[in-house]
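quick one before i forget lol
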Amino acid sequence: MTSERDVLLLPRHIGFELPETIRIDLHDFARRESRLARYTTEIRDTYALGYVFGTFLGDGSSFLNTTGRSEIGHVAWYFGPEERVIAEKLIDCPRDCLRCSSADR
C-alpha cells in the first residue's frame, strides 16, 4: 500500500570498495585440475568480461544442480526482440575473455 506521504530514501553517494583489477583463476573452481592443462586458466579484466557480467546482471539467469558426486549447471541470457545487437555482441565475449592470457598483457 502506498500513500502520498511515502518517501524513498537513498544515499547521496555510494562508496563501493572494488579492486583495481579483477583476476579469476579457474583452478580455484576446478574439480579435476588435470583437465585444465590445455586451457587458459586465468581470466583478467577486459571489456569483454565486463560486457558478460553486465549483460548477465541485466538479462541473465543461472542454474546449478548437485546430485550425488556431480554438479551440472548452465547460464542463460534472455533478450527481447529489440535487443538483437546486444545478443550478437555478447556471443564472442566469452571466447575473447579466455583468449586473453597473462602473456597478452
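fyi The CA atoms of residues 51 and 90 lie 7 Å apart.
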